[in-house]
Amino acid sequence: MINNIELHSHYNSSLGISILVPNDWGFTVVNDSKIRLFGNFEDGYKDFFEEYRPSISFEIIKLEETIDFKDLHAGYSSLKRSDYNDYELISELDKKLLNKYYYESKFSWTDESTNIKIYQKQGFVESGINSYISFNSSVFEKYSEKYEALFNLILGSMRIIPNKL
Predict the structure, then answer these.
(1) How far, in whole angstroms, is CA 44 from its chain's centroid?
(2) Which of 18, 105, 107, 119 is most enclosed, with most CB atoms within 10 A?
């Protein structure tokens, strides 16, 4: 899927990140702390909700206290288990990435209104002493293999560029 894809670079100063964005994907600034990218609808799914297009979002979270990222990871994991119908963990990963704490979780769940399985990759990367960038990608589970490489490309392109102001 990503062999012939055209990308452009997008920098968001509010989030302090630069990412590569597929040229044919829609882009929305949700608010000063969150952006969302949308792919095209898969054939046969245009009548479903807008959020069921392949998508990935980024949000900066700033806290007043210094973060212990291991504790944040544990809280993230337990929250997801209770928030999703038929939640199935596929994998979890935590590591240092460019000297920043990085966590990701891949999982699937079933939408109650459509009974369709959804694949998600969620996580966060440390962006400062008391801040992190969360990310959330999702697609119908039957298309997860098609979009996994693209989600990895977008996430791998992310550069944290602190705002000097």
Answers:
(1) 24
(2) 119
CA 117 to each of CA 31, 50, 51, 101, 140: distance values in angstroms, whole numbers, following the listed order: 29, 16, 14, 30, 6
Task: Answer whether residue 1 is part of any domain.
Answer: no
Is 88 among the domain residues?
A: yes
Stretch (H or E) spanning 150 = helix 144-157
Taking only the tens place, the pLDDT of each residue in 19-39 is: 999 999 988 889 989 999 998
Question: What's the predicted TM-score (pTM) here?
Answer: 0.87
In a domain, 19, yes or no: yes
Residues 122-155: pLDDT tens digits?
Answer: 999 988 878 889 999 999 898 999 899 999 999 9
What is the gyration radius of the CA atoms in the chain, in angstroms? Answer: 16
Tell me the C-alpha distance between 132 and 86, whole Å.
28
Domain hosting residue 12, numbered range: 7-160
> What is d(CA 93, CA 161) in angstroms, rounded to the nearest whole number?
23
